[in-house]
Specification:
The structure is a single chain. This protein is α+β, with helices and mostly antiparallel strands. 20% of the residues lie in helices and 41% in strands. It has helices spanning 4-15, 45-57, 82-87; strands spanning 20-27, 32-39, 67-72, 92-97, 102-110, 114-123, 132-141, 145-150. The strands form 2 sheets. A 5-stranded antiparallel sheet has the order 7-6-5-4-8. A 3-stranded mixed sheet has the order 1-2-3. Helix 2 links the parallel strand 2 and strand 3 (67-72).
């Protein structure tokens, strides 16, 4: 079976010093290799073809047969790496916490351990005659979050 670490290393070597970054690599039991890449300005199909050819040229089909799929991280896919959070600062996201609660808001800050969103809710607080929009900054540790997705 082809090792995931080998594929990740090949991809990292190819995308080093480019605008692209690795999101995920998976290798199934049947040697179906799936590579997901992303970039701050979007992923070019020509780059996916180039990356696919590069990886394939560094693997030996005589030793082990495989299927190779290279593509961009889907726009509706959950974030998997820190750089996806960083590139989406200022965008609307939906956060599903492990406690089952969903939060929607603008991604406002990101660091190595956590991120924050500004969530706006319509609430009636004491003294209000009707509901008003209140914005609250909520911080999450990555370990508290089941998934984070971009909202369109």
């Amino acid at each position: 079976m082809i090792q995931k670490e080998l594929i990740a290393s090949l991809v990292e070597n190819k995308i080093n010093d480019t605008r692209y970054f690795l999101v995920d690599v998976s290798v199934s039991k049947d040697n179906v290799i799936t590579i997901e890449v992303d970039a701050d300005e979007g992923v070019d199909i020509d780059f996916c073809v180039e990356l696919s050819r590069f990886v394939e040229s560094n693997l030996d089909r005589e030793t082990e047969d495989f299927e190779l799929n290279v593509g961009s991280a889907g726009l509706t896919s959950p974030f998997k790496v820190l750089r996806q959070y960083q590139k989406n600062i200022g965008n609307q996201v939906e956060v599903l916490a492990f406690d089952g609660r969903k939060h929607k808001g603008e991604l406002v800050s990101v660091d190595d351990d956590s991120f924050s969103i500004d969530e706006t809710l319509m609430l009636r607080k004491e003294g209000d005659k009707r509901k008003k929009a209140y914005t609250e900054t909520i911080s999450f540790r990555y370990s508290e979050v089941k998934q984070t997705k971009l909202i369109f």
